[in-house]
From TrEMBL, chain A:
Classification of source organism: Eukaryota, Fungi, Dikarya, Basidiomycota, Agaricomycotina
Keyword annotations from UniProtKB, A to Z: DNA replication, DNA-directed RNA polymerase, Metal-binding, Nucleotidyltransferase, Primosome, Transcription, Transferase, Zinc
GO molecular function annotations of the record: DNA-directed RNA polymerase activity; metal ion binding
UniProt record similarity statement: Belongs to the eukaryotic-type primase small subunit family.
Record-given protein name: DNA primase
Annotated coiled-coil segments of the chain: none
Keyword Transferase among record annotations: yes
NCBIfam families in alphabetical order: primase_sml (TIGR00335)
Annotated InterPro entries: DNA_primase_S, DNA_primase_ssu_euk/arc
EC id: 2.7.7.-
Xref: Gene3D superfamilies: DNA primase, PRIM domain
Pfam families in UniProt: DNA_primase_S
GO cellular component: alpha DNA polymerase:primase complex
From TrEMBL, chain B:
UniProt family annotation: Belongs to the eukaryotic-type primase large subunit family.
Task of the protein: DNA primase is the polymerase that synthesizes small RNA primers for the Okazaki fragments made during discontinuous DNA replication.
Protein name per UniProt: DNA primase large subunit
UniProt biased composition (Polar residues): 483-494
GO CC annotations, alphabetized: alpha DNA polymerase:primase complex
A Gene Ontology biological process term: DNA replication, synthesis of primer
Binding annotation for [4Fe-4S] cluster: C300, C378, C395, C439
Iron recorded as keyword: yes
InterPro entries in the record: DNA_primase_C, DNA_primase_lsu_euk, DNA_primase_lsu_euk/arc
Region (Disordered): 451-494
């Protein structure tokens, strides 16, 4: 990808971005869940990555202004957010080690396109295009619904990671309080693709071989069923290459059918769709090629591949929203999950573009006058939802206090 | 000793009388206990110590069972025997034994003494909770059904019965949870709703139906809720005790006993393969690794080694698994840095120093919290940190597809005598899930020329439980047989 001037990220550009555009106040209210600084902000860890890969951990701040001051002083390439500890992270050396433990933390998820390298055919590693974004879109749909319907979470913020992935931050009170053990359990229930490079069949979720799919995956099955044809057959054309269809045949439990198809497909130019239809047709006469096998294939090709380590521990750090990706210059903007299919990573504003817009808007302008505005508005709207709930919870608590009195 | 501690009120008041259930009055109405009331009476220092020691022996046996990979049935039998030996099995209410109260008092007191001894560090707390929860579980499974129901109703687990209309609404989902249950049986199964956070183990295995944060748990899995409640309550109580311990109003009699107890627990499980062994023949150097790998490494390490040589890179867990193995094999830190630097040939010095050197030094206990990390055992490799889509670590017998496994076995071990005629036998054990048996068999086949026979394993019929054990034995066999030096490993020289 050729870098035009808009995509170039120099220290000067970053400094101007932090000084004029970065929505520190919005970030503060989101983390703090209220206007008056609480421990949720003041005992929160911030970590900075400076130019030359210098990594500074355990910073903490009393207010949004103090955070901004430090960011301007460091001018980091990015900064990350950790948990709320039992003491202020910057004072951690003054307390006993056992008295410095992570207490509360948003439940976070990270989906990265590299985990899809084995199945996507359009790009590899760092590259991303609208075609492979469809994998991310499917993942967002599945996780968003599952986490809402099964786990009852409501305050979920999806953030584009600036290049080839997406992050999710869940700020419900119940999510903040989860222990590492509970986080591990939740992640395990959402992890369907297992086994390393050398394992062909990566979906093994049934209690016994022929038992139905666990109900936990029914929602995902429904969502993904609608997308399989478009995404895997048409868009990615996954079974076009020999490597592609061989991988599919390895999942076909009926050896006879696999052999027949291998003969038919070797050297042919049959499209993925026709190959799939042919397989479905042959399956009708087979005892071992049940709908369960097809469900497993569906999941293996489309089920979200999450980076589990990020979600399992409270003290894992994750890049703050609205940071700039150093390679692409794109801002890590919030994404509306209901419109995830329309989202195009290429259209996300870059830091250069924003500064130009700001320049054109004239003296004294801020992010309100740039194309960052809709994203900050989305972010603030999300925070408002959290704050409303916090307020209600407080009112309820004080009402109970009165009763106890 | 528990001054200032809150005494929780007993919930659920008195149990209802039923015809054939013996209801005991007094301090210990049930055989099982959540230990929510501390002992508030005088005890002699002798009882204080001996009761605790007896309980400790049981807990140590439980830990040893886990370390030895015993099955749940074996563990249960062993634990029950130990409990009976030390009068801690506890008779049921119907036993009409005159010792009921005495046994239960011993159980109660010993539990609380050990809490004092094991609340002090995170590590001790974790182990204590695990062992105590296991003990609770063993007793729970052998409890009288009626008494168990009574005991459960005396506690508040925050569960709510799913009423019939709701059960009907989600019938298809709930039925899918219990694929082996017939129509008629399903009618009789009661489901309970609890917050999902109370049954994390069931959520992880997708054994419950989740809706808006509520987990629907069938009666058959109800015990999970109870065990988890026991575990979390104990964890919290231990943390509270840890905070209160410095303020213990103590004479000099108790602290030495407590120290003694916690040390006994630490020494309970032998772990001969977890720390670096002194090298047998001088220093192990970076250049020697490749040669050793081809001759002495079990398949998991061989595969990591070959991947590293091929890709000039390994992902995080691969580095961890292989790096710790090499450390215990005897590779010093200087040699380890040299080895990894050489292997990661496609990256710059700068990147290596910044991104990888720290981790290598960390695993040798020279950075961060400076812990001396043991090498991963087979159990850890099999069960924790499952390999993701592009990882190479793990156990090949478990994590490889059968055809890849066969090809790799032949590539790696055919020059040591493994032929394709051995494959069916190996693949059969793999299919049955006996991965360590398959690994042990490969060891036997590849060491036939050293006189190892089928069934001998890595000496005296022992099977492989740790990759370092495999490598060490293999190297030992290679040493010239000078009049049968090693006395402890009886060996047939062919």
């Amino acid at each position: 990808m050729a870098l035009d001037s808009d995509n170039e990220v120099t220290p000067e550009v970053m400094l101007a971005f932090y000084r004029l555009l970065y929505p520190f106040h919005s970030l503060f209210t989101w983390l703090n869940q209220g206007q008056i600084p609480t421990k949720l902000f003041t005992q929160r860890e911030f970590a900075f990555t400076l130019a030359g890969d210098v990594y500074l951990r355990y910073h903490s701040f009393m207010s949004a202004e103090e955070l901004k001051k430090q960011v301007l002083a460091f001018n980091p390439t990015r900064f990350e957010i950790g948990p709320m500890y039992s003491a202020r992270p910057k004072d951690r050396k003054t307390v006993r080690p056992s008295a410095f433990t992570p207490l509360l933390r948003e439940l976070v998820f990270d989906i990265d396109m590299t985990d899809y390298d084995a199945i996507r055919t359009c790009c590899s590693s760092a590259d991303i295009c609208a075609r492979c974004w469809a994998f991310i879109a499917a993942a967002v749909r599945v996780l968003d619904t599952t986490l809402r319907e099964q786990f009852g979470f409501r305050h979920m913020l999806w953030v584009y990671s600036g290049r080839r992935g997406i992050h999710l931050w869940i700020s419900d009170a119940d999510a903040l309080e989860l222990t590492d053990e509970q986080r591990r359990a939740l992640v395990a229930s959402l992890t369907v693709i297992e086994g390393g490079k050398d394992m062909h069949k990566k979906v093994n979720v049934r209690f016994t071989k022929q038992s139905p799919l666990p109900p936990a995956l029914w929602g995902a099955r429904e969502t993904l069923n609608d997308r399989f044809g478009e995404l895997i057959l048409r868009n990615q054309d996954c079974f076009a290459s020999q490597e592609g269809w061989e991988a599919l045949l390895r999942l076909v439990s009926d050896g006879g059918i696999a052999e027949t198809l291998r003969e038919e497909w070797t050297g042919s130019k049959i499209s993925s769709i026709d190959k799939w239809l042919r397989l479905r047709e042959l399956a009708k006469g087979s005892k071992s090629l049940t709908s369960a096998v097809f469900e497993d294939i569906l999941l293996q090709y489309t089920y979200p591949r999450i980076d589990a380590e990020v979600s399992k521990h409270r003290n894992h750090l994750l890049k703050a929203p609205f940071c700039v990706h150093p390679k692409t210059g794109r801002v890590c903007v919030p994404v509306d999950p209901s419109r995830i299919d329309e989202f195009d990573p290429v259209k996300v504003p870059t830091v250069g573009q924003l500064l130009r817009e700001l320049n054109e808007a004239g003296e004294g302008a801020d992010w309100q006058k740039t194309s960052l505005k809709p994203y900050v508005d989305l972010f603030d709207q999300h925070t408002k939802g959290i704050m409303n709930e916090v307020r209600l919870a407080k009112m309820k608590a004080s009402a109970n206090d009165v009763q106890d009195w | 000793m528990y001054k200032g501690g809150q005494q929780p009120t007993i919930k659920g008041a008195q149990p209802k009388k039923e015809a054939d259930v013996v209801v005991l009055q007094g301090p210990y109405p049930y055989r099982l206990s959540f230990y929510d009331r501390p002992p508030l009476y005088d005890v002699t220092i002798e009882d204080f110590e001996t009761f605790a020691l007896d309980r400790l022996r049981i807990l140590a046996e439980i830990e040893a069972s886990y370390a030895r990979n015993r099955s749940w049935d074996e563990l249960r039998t062993v634990t029950e025997a130990q409990c009976k030996k030390y009068d801690l099995w506890l008779s049921s209410n119907t036993a009409r034994s005159q010792f009921i109260d005495l046994e239960r008092k011993k159980d109660h007191l010993s539990h609380f003494v050990l809490r004092l001894a094991f609340c002090r560090s995170e590590e001790l707390r974790r182990r204590f909770v695990k062992a105590e929860t296991t003990l609770f579980r063993v007793r729970y499974e052998k409890d009288d059904t009626k008494e168990l129901t009574q005991f459960l109703s005396s506690q508040d687990f925050g569960w709510e019965k799913v009423d019939p209309p709701e059960k009907a609404t989600y019938e298809s989902e709930l039925r899918a949870l219990l694929p082996n249950v017939g129509d008629k049986e399903f009618k009789d199964i009661v489901f309970y709703k609890v917050k999902w956070t109370r049954v994390p183990d069931l959520v992880a295995k997708r054994r419950v139906f989740l809706r808006r944060g509520q987990a629907f748990v069938p009666t058959t899995l109800q015990a999970s809720i109870v065990f988890h409640a026991f575990e979390t309550q104990l964890e919290k109580a231990l943390e509270r005790t840890a905070k209160g311990l410095p303020r213990l109003d103590e004479d000099t009699r108790i602290v030495p006993i407590l120290n003694n107890l916690s040390q006994g627990f630490l020494a309970g499980v032998p772990s001969e393969w977890t720390n670096a062994t002194p090298t047998m023949d001088g220093e192990l150097r970076a250049e020697m690794v490749d040669g050793l790998a081809k001759k002495h490494f079990p398949m998991c390490m061989r595969n990591l080694h070959e991947s590293l040589m091929r890709d000039h890179h390994l992902k995080h867990f691969g580095r961890l698994q292989y790096g710790l193995f090499l450390k215990v094999l005897g590779l010093s830190i200087e040699e380890a840095v040299a080895f990894w630097r050489k292997s990661f040939s496609s990256i710059t010095d700068d990147k290596f120093n910044k991104e990888y050197k720290y981790n290598i030094r960390h695993s040798y206990g020279l950075e961060g919290k400076r812990a001396n990390y043991p090498a991963k055992s087979c159990q850890q490799i099999l069960l924790s940190d499952q390999p993701g889509p592009s990882d190479c670590h793990g156990c090949p017998y478990r994590h490889f597809a059968p055809d890849n496994l066969q090809t790799s076995l032949l590539t790696y071990y055919s020059n040591q005598g493994l032929t394709s005629s051995n494959l069916p036998e190996i693949m059969k054990t793999v299919k049955e899930g006996h991965y360590h048996v398959a690994c042990t068999r490969v060891f036997e086949i590849t060491h036939t020329s050293k006189g190892v026979e089928k069934g001998q394993g890595i000496g005296s019929g022992e099977s492989v439980t740790h990759p370092n054990q495999y490598a060490a034995r293999s190297r030992e066999l290679e040493k010239p047989q000078e009049g049968g030096t090693s006395s402890d490993t009886a060996m047939v020289v062919g």
